[in-house]
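Write out this protein's structure.
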Amino acid sequence: MKKLNIKTGLQGLVLLILSITLYNCSVDKYKESTDETVNATEYLKLNEEEYSMFLELLEVTGYASFLNTYGTYTLFLPTNDAVESFLNTAGVSSPADLPIEDLQDLVKLHILESKVITTDFNDGKIATPTMQGQYLVTGASNQGGSSSIIVNKESRIVSSNIEVGNGIIHVIDKVLPIAKLSLAQQVETQESLSIFTSALKATGWYDILDKPVTYDQDSISSHLSLIAQTNEAFERAGFSSYEELEERYSHLGQPTNPEDSLNLYVAYRILPGLKYVADLVNSPTHSTEAPQEVIGVKLAQDSVLINEQTFDGVLEKGVLLNREQSDVTTTNGVLHLVKNNFEIKKRFPTPVYFDPGDQPEIRRLASVFRIPGQNASFTKEDLQFVDWEGDDEIMYRVDTPGGGTYGHGYWADVMQIKRLRDGYVNNIEFTTPVIIKGRYKIWVSYRAAPNASPNVQVFFNDEELSRQLNFTEYGNTTQPERVLESQGYKIPVSPQTNRFNSRLLGIVEVETTGRHKIRFNAVTNAGQETWIDVIEFRPIEMDQIYPRFSPTGLVEQ
């Protein structure tokens, strides 16, 4: 049958754009290497005619020696013209005229503590944050027939992938600006968002979106993501003023009341966490500040749609995200814009394909996450959404797509537990992505191994599922797939291989929309690694076999 590859993120699209960008750029604009024994600071000294002013910034802030030491860094390096323009805009003639704290933040915004080359710019947001803490966003631009890569929507890369002894350098034509406005302030500064600003203030959400970032006892930040809409979008929906909006939505006449419809209308546009476009498209649903309400996100070719769904055979069209004006970094979150008005939508059960290796801390490791041949070990303290009994580390591993070990699995990666047994890792618990309330079948797909854990109890929200899991059980590729399904098994990957197996563990009623817990508890000993590939939550009425998984995403067949 004909196969259709379905991507679950922006990776393919943006990678294609950037590939075209790199191809169209002239060779002299993209230097490939220099003497690898020269570290970043020494490289600047050898090229002072171009970079002496940023070198001065490094020396004033004390970072010159730091960038001359052993390590792995990425430096976005402004030219002398770029730094001079920055100083002129600031109204000073020398870096010494600016507060040292501001200069230190500025320098740190240009440095990543990992090596990121241009082919890693595959999802808009660079996975690793800068040393200053804010993320950088990249995209392709074509002006006057010349293609280039733009960083943070303003700075153009004029020379890239310059290898030095302690990392990589990308030369940019403009100093990267530090976000200094909160989400609330960023919205208020835009006249085109005046109706939305009034709604934020009337409901009390303005004050919340104006607060500085804090961290709780688990180091989870208070960052928020906001989906705002312009006056033009309101006008298309029939609202020419805030007063008309309030009249339509404030059913209690008390906008500050959390139960008032207008308050919920605004809360529905606020998402917990720092979610750039790349993060939005990575999951089909996202929690909002409106209790028990989620938004749906769908990638359709190069468009990102909010709340598009098909129910009972009828397509309910979504709202386009304005990608060109989204991904705006603020001091306490990220701002997006949509092109039309949208309301809280009743959500129906939606499949969740949970890759346990897709953890925030692992995703930030750009040189490891879904990179063939790479791996990394983690302690319990390293991963905020994974917990286990025992002192052993667990490992995230990536195989070459199609490779014999686990390269046939979803994204060719697995979570490896050295010994899922007493005395090592007795049990391990994952926090799931958002699951919409409803009835689901739970499948666990894994790479079988002859001496892995043979008897594992699985608990969903502390309730034991009806069947146990045997990680030594290989898949059956000879039996008809529907017969196999009736017995609670399936081959989860395409192309099929008996190395990967999937077991139906039971049916659960997810009573609340949100994130939940799934725990694997070893009953007997094991002498080999346990490899978990995907944990599936499929609505009971949907096909339980298709789509299958592949090293590049989902595959219909």
